[in-house]
Design brief:
The protein has about 140 residues and is of the alpha+beta class. The chain is built from two helices and eight strands, in the order H-E-E-E-E-H-E-E-E-E. It has a single domain (about 10-135), classed as Hotdog Thioesterase (Thiol Ester Dehydrase, Chain A). The longest helix is centred in the middle third of the chain and has 20 residues, at about 55-75.
Length: about 140
């Protein structure tokens, strides 16, 4: 039996809309399920680095945000979580195309989360693989 989904696509997109620091990326949630979030990064020339490829920080940012939102599907939107560690392997570049990033929570603890994210281009080719840890802020 699976746990109830604690944040819907609509709620996760509302979180994105309220996060001013994410506005330049245009991220949107395509789908979610328990512990999984699929995020879309629409192509924008403002996210390119010299040479015409999508910047690495855009791809890393997508993975980071997708994991943040994947956690919310299991813990709700009120808890505060921050990235504690992230390792990225860039496997190919993206050029003038949308990017899809899928984050999966692998281990959910009370104060830490461990998971992976993968970013793909429009042809479903793997662009980057990420291993991410998050820590809960307890006040």
């Amino acid at each position: 039996m699976t746990a109830p989904l604690l944040a819907s696509v609509e709620q996760l997109n509302a979180v994105l809309a309220e996060a001013a620091f994410l506005a330049p990326y245009g991220f949107s949630v395509r789908s979610c399920e328990e512990g999984v979030c699929t995020l879309v990064v629409p192509f924008s020339a403002t996210l390119e680095r010299p040479g015409g490829i999508v910047s690495g920080m855009t791809i890393m940012g997508a993975a980071d945000v997708a994991m943040w939102l994947a956690i919310m599907t299991q813990r709700g939107t009120s808890e505060r979580w921050v990235t504690s560690d992230m390792k990225t392997a860039f496997l190919r570049s993206a050029r003038q195309e949308d990017i899809v990033c899928v984050a999966r929570v692998l281990k959910l603890g009370k104060r830490t989360v461990y998971g992976t994210a993968e970013c793909f281009n429009e042809q479903s080719e793997l662009l980057a693989h990420h291993v991410i840890s998050y820590a809960r802020i307890v006040e």
